[in-house]
Structures are given as structure tokens and as C-alpha cells.
Amino acid sequence: MTYTYVEIPVMLEFPTEPAAIMNYTVQGRGDVLPVGAMWVGEGPWWTRPPTRENIQRKIDERSAKRNAAGELIHKEAPVRWTEINPVEIPQDRTYRNALCCVDGRVQHDMVKAREWHRAMLRHERARKFLELDGARAVAVRSGDTQKVAAIDAEAQKWADAPADPRIEAARNVAELKQLLETPI
Amino acid sequence: MLILRANLDDLEVVTGSAADIEVHLSAMQADASTPPIVQPAPNLGPLASITTATTTQILDTSGITSGHIVNVKGLSIFNNHASQACQVTVQVNDGTVVTILAGMDVNLLAGESLLLTQGGVAIHYDVNGGVYPSVGNAASQAEMEAGTATDKYVSPGVMKFHPGVCKARGKFGVTGNTIEGWNVDSPTDNGTGDITVNVTTDLSTANGTAQVTVEMTATTYAVANARTSHIRFGGQAAGTLRCDCIDGTATTQLVKDPTAWHVGIDGDFA
Q1: Selected residue of B175, B186, B205 to mutate for chain A interface (largest A Cβ count, 10 A)
Q2: Euclidean distance between CA atoms A78 and A81, whole angstroms
């Protein structure tokens, strides 16, 4: 019989960091049995029921891990965790860092989604400014004032992009994504 | 050959756990006359199963006349339990001194057996009836970690201790899910381009070595498709590795998801 890893998603929410999704291993492989697990046949596959105690133990282990300097690997401990339905996890990960859990359902936190959207715009803007600066220098050297004005106008659009009121007006991530795909 | 003194030496089996140990003994007794009169030892036949951790007298010579001798022709010990292993020790006890018989102090796994032949040779059989090899030549954890012995063989259960052998590995999908792995447990998707790999059995220190690489998201080598993997700064613990992935866009690369993560962890087990 062929065995595979079997995991169930558990969402961990933090005070400031994006929610993490722990893929809690229900069936795994190794030569040492983890706490709460039992061998499948003679091993090396094991199975571990996803009880609240077992999941909590794994989360506690995660939260306690420290590096060689004694610092925590994960700075924040989760304020809550929820077992989530894998089919509710969006396939499109554009706004992954805005995921949250409300009444056991996976949703996007629109405040975080808008901030993430602005962060993506700022990153793209930094790259675009480099291009525009180069093009503007060429236009200035050739005395093409019309082109300089056009480049300046485009740079202004990029400068204003994070403050686009449509970002605040967006009701869901689909509308935000539509803005990303629309030319500035 | 095993010869016991009548009315003095008793044969005992010590069981270390509550399994189901079945014992059968074959023995003869001889008196001191010339020629000696030989007859079966008393109370032969299958003995009651031993199902607790205890010491059981399997040959009681107290009823035999002093000066006679008892010759044990054969002893069979079988662990009939479905899953419980049991440390089994066969010893001679004269009331003052206890002597463990050579080769007769073994861990009998479920379905295994131990035989003492007429010639006095102890044979340990596995569940399939195969004779155990000499475990005295198997490398220990310390010998595997030293990695220098040339007169030991490596058994599957200790190969992992060699310093050159990978301690944990896995291929993880974009959401941190385990696609394939060994000794990895409950990986976590911390966000875009950020996962934590947890191992089942921790290393002894946070200073193991690790290899992290990622699969690109397209075949074209555009900066936006490039993916560079990292061990996150300060992201290595004894049983944890946190990894980042970024693209190649200017002016500061953006954290991005790869198609898949490939992670291997080496070091030392406790």
C-alpha cells in the first residue's frame, strides 16, 4: 500500500503579523513516533488524530522554538487558532497576507488587503520610477519638452497611486485585483 | 549441554514485561549408580504461558534425590504476543548464586523465539523463523556519529546518526503542504513567500546545516519569474527552519511564492 502525507489546515492569527496556516500532519513518516501518534502497521508511517490537545501541543512547540542566539523564530504567539476547511483557502494568493478567520470561515480582512495592495503598488512604483527617470533624462538631453511633460505626468500618476480612492472603495479583493490589472 | 545438580539447581525464566511467553522444556535425570539409571525429569510438558513481568521456575529439581543430575536436552521460549516485546532471561539459581546462561538474555519481539539446543547453543529466531545475525557487530549511535569504525555494520535504525546523512527533508507546495518528506511535521505557511518547516525529531543544536531551494513559477527568465530562496535571518532552531522566497524585481525584491519548496536539514541528533 502506498501512503502519503495527510494534513489538515489550521489558521493561526497574530496581533500584527499575517495569519499563518499550519498544515497539521495527521499522517506522516519518520522512524520516531511523535507524541500522540501511533504507527500505521510496522512504520515508518504514523498517524496522529487532530485532537485539540495534539494541535495545541504542535502550536506551542512552534511558538517556543529559538535560534542559536536565543531569539524566537516566530516573534508573536497566536492569539487564537481555528481548524479551517481547505476548500475555503483561496487559490489566488495575491492577497494571501490579508487572510483571516471569522466564525470559522476563511475571509479576507479588507483593511489588511488594502494595505497589502498599496504595498504592491509602492513596490511597482519604485521600479517604475527608475524606468521613468532614465527616460526623462534622455528626453531632457534631446530637448523634447513634450515628452518630459508626459513622463512627469505619468510619474505623478504613480506617485498618487497608493492614494487612489478606488482602493478604499473596493468592497472585496476581486475589486482590488481588478485595480491591479488596470493601467495606472 | 546443560547439566543441573538435583535438589540444588533450578532453572528460571525472567520476563521483563507482560507479554505471552510460552515455554517448553525437555530434560532427563540420571542417578549416581553405575551404569546410571536414566529417566525423564519430572513435570515435563508445556508450561502455562507467562503473561506478567516475573521470575518463573521452569525446572524445579527439589523433588529429585540429591546426587542425581538433570540434563536439559532442549528449551524453547516463544513470544506469542501480537505486539508486546519482552526481555527474556534464562538463569540457573542454586538458592545462593544466580547465573545467566550465555546467549539467553535477549529481547524477544512479538512472534520471536529463543531456543537452547542439546549442544548448549542459544539461537534467537525472528518472526519469520530466520536466525538473528550477531548484533554485537552493529554500529551504535556513538559509532555512527564518529563515523570511523570499519568493523561494524550499519543497521537501518542507526544510519540516520551518521554526520553525513540527511536528518529531515521535504518537498512542500505553495501553501506549505507536504508533498513528500521524511521526519518533517506540520509545516506552516506564514504568508506570501514565507514558510516554516518543523521536524518531528529535533536536532541537538540550532546549528545544523540546511539546503533550501525553490521551483520557479515559469520557464522564462524574467526578473518577475525569478525565485531566490533563503533561510530567513535568525530563522533556524533545533527543530525548525524558516525560509523566505523573493523575486528578482528592482529596486527591492518582492517576497513571492515559489511553485514548490525543497528543504533538506543535516546535523546531529540528540
Answers
A1: B186
A2: 7
